[in-house]
Design brief:
The structure holds 2 protein chains of 2 kinds.
Chain A: H1 9-87, H2 94-116, E1 119-121, E2 134-141, E3 150-155, E4 158-160, E5 163-166, E6 168-174
Parallel strand pairs in A: 2-6
Antiparallel strand pairs in A: 1-4, 3-6, 4-5
Helix pairs in contact in A: 1-2
Chain B: E1 11-16, E2 20-27, E3 30-33, E4 43-44, E5 46-50, E6 53-56, H1 58-62, E7 71-73, H2 87-90, E8 96-99, E9 105-109, E10 112-114, H3 116-135, E11 141-146, H4 152-164, E12 168-174, H5 175-182, E13 192-199, E14 204-212, E15 215-224, H6 229-248, H7 256-272, E16 278-289, E17 292-301, H8 302-314, H9 317-327, E18 336-340, H10 347-357, H11 370-383, H12 385-390, E19 393-394, E20 399-403, E21 407-412, E22 417-418, E23 420-428, E24 436-442, E25 452-459, E26 472-478, E27 483-490, E28 496-502, H13 509-521, H14 523-553, H15 559-578, H16 581-604, E29 644-646, H17 649-655
Parallel strand pairs in B: 1-11, 11-12, 13-18
Antiparallel strand pairs in B: 1-2, 2-3, 2-4, 5-6, 5-7, 8-9, 9-10, 13-14, 14-15, 16-17, 19-22, 20-21, 20-24, 23-26, 23-29, 24-25, 26-27, 27-28
Helix pairs in contact in B: 3-4, 5-11, 6-7, 6-8, 13-14, 14-15, 14-16, 15-16
Classes of the chains: A alpha+beta, B alpha+beta.
Chain lengths: 191, 656
Amino acid sequence: MSIPSDPPQSAEETVSPPVEINSAEKEIEQLRSERDEYKDKYLRLLAEGENARKRMQKEKQEYAQFAMHQVIVDFLQPIDQMESALSYATNMSEEVRHWAIGFEMILSQFKQSLTKQGVTVIETVGNQFDPYCHEALELLASDEHPAGTVVAESGRGYRIGDRTLRPARVTVAKAVEPVAEEEEVKEQPEN
Amino acid sequence: MSEQKKKKSRIIGIDLGTTNSCVAIMEGSNPKVIPSAEGSRTTPSEVAYKGAERFVGIPAKRQAEINPENTLRSTKRFIGRKYDEVLSEIQTVPFKVIRASNGDAVFEVQGKTITPQEAGAQILMKMKETAEAYLGESVTEAVITVPAYFNDAQRQATKDAGRIAGLDVKRIIPEPTAAALAYGLDKEKIEKKIAVFDLGGGTFDISILEIGEGVFEVLATNGDTHLGGDDFDNAVLHWMLDAFKQEHGIDLSKDKMALQRLRDAAEKAKMELSGTLSTEINLPFITMDTTGPKHLMQTLSRSKLESLTSQLIERTREPCIKALKDANIRPEDINEVILVGGMTRMPAVQAVVKQIFGKDGHKGVNPDEVVAIGAAIQGGVLSGEVKDVLLLDVTPLTLGIETMGGIMTPLVERNTTIPTQKKQSFSTAADNQPAVTIRVLQGERKMAEDNKEIARFDLTDIPPAPRGTPQIEVCFDIDADGILHVTAKDMSTGKSQKIRVEVSSGLNESDIQRMLKDAERFAEEDLKRKEAAEIHNEAETLAFRASKALKEYKDKLPKEIVDDVQGKIEAVNAAVKSNDLSAIKKAKEELEAHMQHIGEAMAKAGGAAGQQQSPFAGQGQQEGEGHGHRHPQDGEQPIEEAEVEIIDDEKEQKRR
């Protein structure tokens, strides 16, 4: 009876355990990296949860403020109109001027409510034009005022704290030009 | 064994619009628009140069009027384009556009050349800063949207703008696709054809998309590059000027200050008329002449507005028809229509959309922000965030247990994202109660019997103790697969019992909807019943406590007080039996008041040493101190009806 020649037992034995060990090692390796990935994700998620909570807190405060700002801004328009209306009163009769004084007082009460909230008026005429708190309507050639300064205000601007609630509407000075040049904005020849 | 630490980066979504830009980011599974430092959710796409200064966004807009040659706006019309391609656009802008050596259209500002990419980069930088200020961390990656008709050069140039701004642009996606993402249309299982109708600040775009298996394909685009909200404002403005001229003979267009006020009022009126049928435009003291001050008082109705702007609205029709033709489909083949851009808020515009496509446009998402939101969603998908979150489920209905009085006490509110775990402490309702029955309920109604019982089990062998003393912690744990594990544990003995429930086996979708509707319908009724049950409970508990106190201190108290309180106790018991709510309330209050006498008498007698708080004052409080002994139970209740009382300190405070 011939025994088929198998590879020697010892050789087989040394081959298979390493394979098992290798695959086990590989699995451990994989599990380790999976575990690390989950751990990382978990910690980041926790951290993000904390951060989201903090952001929400901050936002809540900001929204409360914004809501208030919006209400204040809505009130600014009628206050404006009233001011502008009263400015015309100086040219009116004695009787009208008398009434106007009363309205001035009411207007002043409105303004006091605003001041209480920390609302201040944005300075304009004489100051350098600042697009962070002024809105420019037009340029006015002037040799009395330095170029770039505000010469007139057509709409009052307000600040609350250091944030611009509503920019002031202004007219800005430009240098008087000896010869008026029109900027050509058509096709330009190649430079 | 090096593991690649995946740097999780937040990818922001930016809608770089012609007139306005917007930035958004994913917060978990929700996209969120980030407001700028000035508080606005959109930022004008404008960059201005003045001497050494540079302004971006709102400040740039504010000085545009006096610095038109150096204020770059609508730069999107020029990005990635050759000079020869944009000759007509150049006519419409006040700043200088020149031909670069490679033929590109570039700007000349204060003698220097600025490319549209650089201009775009300034705006992108502002959006980046806005996001960073909000997140409190640096942002380096973004998804940016472009019109569907942008060619390679335009897309690349937009990407370059991103790079200049310090952003790694992970993807450039078409605006209509972003809008579709915002509406979750990529989740559809079947193939769909979508029309995106985008009428925004300065341009009108119509796109026909096809979505299938999560992939979007742009079939056709068309539009009108100079049609937008400003044109509508101008129509109203001219009407106002004409009317005023007719009435007062004054042309207000010459007065810049008045004109600005009129323009504001026109825009405001236009927006209001999307919600109301008529609005008043009041501009007192708009001007003055020799006869005195002049006021502008006009009433604008929605129908008048529609007739003033009908030509403009009609201009959207032709491009839509052309686009459908190019896509080779009929209007009926369109499955969904999406509305993008502020002007789509106007009812007349929505009406035209319905006329053309035969269906209403989706408008649930803010039309000014929908593109940025879609970009943020794409960013979330790319960063892997959204994918994981979207795998999370929620509980469709509230889960809780039955407590004393037949009330349902919720432990896990509906719509809670799972996996989750919620715990709450309860106690016994009767002295020496040996067991509690945990009835696990699912539903939105306030009373236990109106909800569905999905499981029940008992926790037994509770050592004899006065009612309200044992601490039974009930824990609801729902794992990621939606399996609910309910555990009840006696904190003093450590003994616990648990049960496993497949929550979904409780109800199906239509049941859920019905439950929710019922809960709404019966909300008021349920509340009343719950309150009645609670008062009932409180009264009973109080009577119980009072009689215990009497038993304990009988010897130390004068007879009148004992009799008095006894009488009040009996009154409460009678009222409880009668089920008359107001009688119960009244009797309870009287008992409470008269119980004070016990405390007073005890204090006088100098007794009750070491009793810091009157054991009679509260109900359901943890009171191990005063009642160390066990009383013979009055009526041991069978296990099935063993009720649970809530120990909820917060609630106790409220009740007081």
